[in-house]
Amino acid sequence: MEQTQYLIVGSSHAALEAITAIRMHDGEGSITLVTRDPHLPYSPTVLPYVVSGRSAPDNIALRDAAFFEQNRVGYRPGVAVTRLDTTRKVAELADGSAIGYAKVVLATGASPAIPPIPGLDQVSYHVLRTLDDATRLREAMQRSRQAVVLGAGLVGMHAAENLVKAGANVTIVEMGPHLTSGYFDQTAAGLIEQAFVENGAKIRTRSRVVGLAPEGGEIVVALEGGDTLRADLLLVATGVRPELDYLDGSGVATDRGILVDDTMRTNVEGVWAAGDCAQARSFYGDEPVMNAILPDATVQGRIAGMAMAGDPGLKPYAGGVPLNTYHFFGRHAISVGSSAVPEGAQERVRFDPASGRHLKLIMKDGRLLGIYGVNEFFDAGVMAQLIQRRTDLSAVQDRLFEQPLTVGRELMSQIWR
Amino acid sequence: MGRSFNTIAFDPSKCDGCGDCMRACASVKYDSEDTSRSLIQILGRETDKGSAFELALCRQCGDPKCTTVCPAGALTKNGESGVIEWDGSKCVDCLLCTIGCSYAGIALDETTGRVSKCDTCAGNPACVPACPHGALRYVTTSNIYNEVGDWEDLFAPGLAGCQGCNTELLMRHTLRRVGPDTVLATPPGCVPGMGSVGFNGTTGTKVPVFHPLLTNTAAMLAGIKRQYKRVGREITALAIAGDGGASDVGFQSLSGAAERGEQMLFMVVDNEGYMNTGMQRSSCTPYGAWTSTTPVGKSSDGSHLSQGKTQDAKNLPLIMVNHRCAYVATASTAYMEDLYEKLDKAIQASKTGFAYLHVYSPCTTGWRFPTDQNMEVARKAVETNFVMLWEYTPDTGVHFTRPVDKPLPVTDYLKAMGRFRHLSPEQIEHIQKKVEENRRIVERLAENAHAA
What we know:
Mean pLDDT of chain A: 95
Largest interface: A-B, 42 and 30 residues
Largest sheet of chain A: 7 strands, mixed
Number of strands of chain A: 24
Mean pLDDT of chain B: 94
CATH superfamily of the largest domain in chain A: FAD/NAD(P)-binding domain
Number of helices of chain A: 10
Shape of chain A: globular
Radius of gyration of chain A: 22 Å
CATH class of the largest domain in chain A: Alpha Beta
Distance between the termini of chain B: 48 Å
Largest sheet of chain B: 8 strands, mixed
Low-confidence stretches of chain A: none
Helix content of chain A: 25-40%
Helix content of chain B: 25-40%
Shape of chain B: globular
CATH topology of the largest domain in chain B: Rossmann fold
Strand order of the largest sheet of chain B: 10-9-11-12-16-15-17-18
Number of strands of chain B: 18
CATH topology of the largest domain in chain A: FAD/NAD(P)-binding domain
Structural class of chain A: alpha/beta
Number of helices of chain B: 16
CATH architecture of the largest domain in chain B: 3-Layer(aba) Sandwich
Strand content of chain A: 25-35%
Oligomer: heterodimer
Radius of gyration of chain B: 25 Å
């Protein structure tokens, strides 16, 4: 049986960062990467741009084959791990082979969460999480006249915009009260909704699909309350969750994701997890959360790699901070930090309907908790630092609210230049 | 081996916020007068002491975060130039890089709707020459490290120096530069203590090395060089000596060799005392400094109070100028480009005559400063004119290589270390006066050189 010092499961941001971190400290230990995806590493975040045609599928690789060669990584794409035997320290693979490891990091990401809608198994629908999904959706999109998107998260909204631009009539169906909830506040969601409506999309919030049925090559979407929609393309984008079946019997503790400590270690010796499949501490509280965003995947992957290699420079995970950017119809929205307004916190909002500029700050005790903007650019990385450093902004908060870009830069230059 | 890279450095104390750098950038990059599009952003702010200026600019990080959070593979660090390159054909304008960057070094250009960042104008940044105040510098010292890194390291790996000492840097760089055809003399002092003469019967260098007495270094080396000449072999005769070995008991042989024009390179690593034997004073120890033989405090019978060294330091490099050597220079590891130019000239001069290079070497152990502050102390010494960087040849006379027109008060240097902590205001005044006096002496020599 093949034996490896470091086994990396998965091939996106967290996995790649783990490899880099391991090689920073351990130039010799053998590394093997297995991933179920057959393609060179890519980011799920780029997929909407593959759907739109902006990114060519062969031009999105995060690393090339030379990277694996230079870092002496055994690269095995197209092979999923089917079972993890943590007692014998062996990963069983889909091709029937097995690989023994000393240390393993699970960076398997997440898969689309499929809602339990009656009839869903009777119809053909799309999801968008892999490059193959994107290629299929792009092909189908060219022919679509009438599309329904379930879910108004960032994946659904991105795809819906692509469908609108491809000329389809698009209806977005969302259970929640407004679009992009969890990422942006109601004002921002209103601006996003307005942009979609202006471009011809229909939005149905507080709306639930109760049944799906095929009919004459189309799909009939039955909504709660009796309305029906017809679609020649159905995209299910109701969130993601990690697939954890392969961990059955491994003893690795899971909740919504794989539970990890502040060094991304699981409860089982020799097993780490990072990225969208991991459930780690939140910056804002002790409850472990799923913070399935790209920047956090890189941080977690780096920490896991350092911990596995025994790098003494490791700093424990500071807790996840939500960080999102979103481009829609030529406009942009940025959210940094928590959208919750805890007791004693102040919300400061300014909105200019003429320019569509919207800014919201959430402050508590002179500290920044969150900042949100639509068409109002500020340096999100600087704001994230102000949040994570818990910088006392009492003296500058009025100015920061007026001019987040310049005042943020001033603070950066003074505090951590 | 990792490479080092050139970088744009900003000195906020010299900036008056005129915006010329931003105008130059916007003009070169976008043919625009809109400074908000400039890739270098100077930000003004009012403080109780007046205006202060801050900078937002891509740092071309060694371990960049922007490249790791890019979902499209559009940002990569160029391993040759060090520049983080943006590929507009791959970028999807998602702005995630602006989340990754903690320095506001990559930001949205609202005119194009795309991100923009500094690319150092392919190694010729337009902002730097546009600055009328010298607040921006394009630091190209990295070239030295890359070049030197390709030469053979002639010292043993691992030296027994104190943590934070700059002498290892000096030893390795010097020996790499002079190369393998060298005979090295290291009299008693920190350099052999750090390992040049080796351990357990092996030498610490890959060139012939010997350990003369403090008194006869220059004499022995002169004899060896002459023997090599006699048998027709071209070598560099190199001494790396401490200030004690050069300015005190070794001075007679040093002066003799210099006067005779012996063909050698004599480098003095001046840490202003006998630091390896317990920090005794030397003739190069400055006035007021604590050493173990110029203590601070009351005598045991309480009869008198001691306040550090009561004499001024001997100015050995100026004494060497008065030998009319082929080359004399002072140098500091805080100014490596300057040091390297002088090292090259000294090597050249040593082929025909006596070359003398005096390098100031702050001693973390004996001067009492934190181990991470060596370069800062060395820099402060120059910025206050406590140490002056100049060179001399018989043809060109003395001239400053790094003149400091607006020196900082000498207290900025003194307070950076513990050995001056006890100084009285009178002692500080004495030191400041000596700094100015020394400056005038060298200035006069330099003026005379110009007049000639």
